[in-house]
Known about the structure:
Layout: E1 2-5, H1 10-21, E2 26-30, E3 43-47, H2 53-60, E4 65-68, H3 80-95, E5 99-104, H4 117-129, H5 131-145, E6 150-151, E7 154-155, E8 158-160, E9 169-171, E10 182-184, H6 185-194, E11 207-209
Parallel strand pairs: 1-2, 1-4, 2-3, 4-5, 5-6, 5-7, 8-10
Antiparallel strand pairs: 9-11
Helix pairs in contact: 1-6, 2-3, 3-5, 4-5
Amino acid sequence: MLAVFGASATTGKILVRQALEQGYAVTAYARNPAKLNITHPGVKVVQGELQDLPAISRAVEGADAVISLLGPTGRVKGRPVSEGMANIIAAMRGKEVQRLVPTATPSAPDPKDSFDFGFRLAVKMVKLTMGDAYADIVGTEAVIRDSGLDWTIVRLPLLSNKPKTGIVKTWYLGDRKIKLSSVSRGDLADFLLAQVNEPKFLHQAPVINN
């Protein structure tokens, strides 16, 4: 069984459907369950906010893995996602769930990254224009890295609504052979699901695109 946070967003719904196609049962955590709009015997919906630790605990109970598509949207105040992720991690520890596969952006650094002037410039612009959102992204990554869980952070640049290709490239910043571009929502969902039982990127944060 998979617990999915951010299930009612566009990519979340795609991931839930693909998980069901692959034979998983899914517990979808949503602030507004009506937005999920998926009726299936394999789907259980838990309603709650990211501050609701008891509800989050119910969502992760019995899960083989937790997938999170949470991320700051636009201008935010404070660090709602990193605080929510801390609650998810606390619930996972309490329910003895070890595998965590969250998404992030390349703004969250990884030790395997190397210098990329263009991206560094872009990050500086994000810091200047969306400082709280940037702090939330970086703070979320830090909480995950310090969790003691079996995590793989999947970093993605832009999302596209193009059809799923079945081809995903993994790389790290500074790899000049690959340009920073988009990944389709369907391919992202497939990659996230593949990480549930794949140890290749354990405790790593690859960037992916098409």
